Amino acid sequence: MIKIDFDKMGGLIPAVIQDAENGEVLMVAFMDEKTLNLTLESGKTWFFSRSRNKYWMKGEESGNTQDVVEVLTDCDADTVVIKVRQNGPAACHTGNRSCFFVKWEDGTWVEHSKPLFNPAQVYKK
């Protein structure tokens, strides 16, 4: 039986969030045992914010939730890939579809997409 190894990295594991339809990597976040269980039970993605030191469900503020389609772990059982159906236009808090919109090109980092929503209007911080 496989058991996810939360101890290897101080109680957290990386979670790669991937669009189930086209394979695009939407984001990478961290999970502990509680948020992985919440994700598996609810069918929505839950994470642990290291900067805010709190649990959060993707889309709880923006409405851009993620429906879990499939969950996989790697051979070391210390990382998960979660294939999702993205609800709403964007997975990234910057308003971009994916958090991976900056590309190394000719010796510099270049943004390759435009935000699909204005984060200042969505996240009332």
TrEMBL record:
Organism: Candidatus Accumulibacter adjunctus
Pfam families for the chain: PRA-CH (PF01502)
Sorted UniProt keywords: Amino-acid biosynthesis, Cytoplasm, Histidine biosynthesis, Hydrolase, Magnesium, Metal-binding, Zinc
Pathway connected to this protein: Amino-acid biosynthesis; L-histidine biosynthesis; L-histidine from 5-phospho-alpha-D-ribose 1-diphosphate: step 2/9; Amino-acid biosynthesis; L-histidine biosynthesis; L-histidine from 5-phospho-alpha-D-ribose 1-diphosphate: step 3/9
Cofactor, free-text remark: Binds 1 zinc ion per subunit.
Top EC class for this record: hydrolase
GO biological process: L-histidine biosynthetic process
Coiled coil spans: none
Cofactor: Zn(2+); Mg(2+)
Record's keyword annotation contains Membrane: no
Binding-site residues for Mg(2+), renumbered to this chain: 74, 76, 78
Subcellular location: Cytoplasm
Cited InterPro entries: PRA-CH, PRib_AMP_CycHydrolase_dom, PRib_AMP_CycHydrolase_sf
Subunit-structure text: Homodimer.
UniProt catalytic activity: 1-(5-phospho-beta-D-ribosyl)-5'-AMP + H2O = 1-(5-phospho-beta-D-ribosyl)-5-[(5-phospho-beta-D-ribosylamino)methylideneamino]imidazole-4-carboxamide; 1-(5-phospho-beta-D-ribosyl)-ATP + H2O = 1-(5-phospho-beta-D-ribosyl)-5'-AMP + diphosphate + H(+)
Annotated positions binding Zn(2+): 75, 92, 99
GO molecular function terms noted in the UniProt entry: magnesium ion binding; phosphoribosyl-AMP cyclohydrolase activity; phosphoribosyl-ATP diphosphatase activity; zinc ion binding
Predominant location category: cytoplasm
Keyword Transmembrane carried by entry: no
One GO cellular component term noted in the UniProt record for this chain: cytoplasm
UniProt function note: Catalyzes the hydrolysis of the adenine ring of phosphoribosyl-AMP.
Protein name according to UniProt: Phosphoribosyl-AMP cyclohydrolase
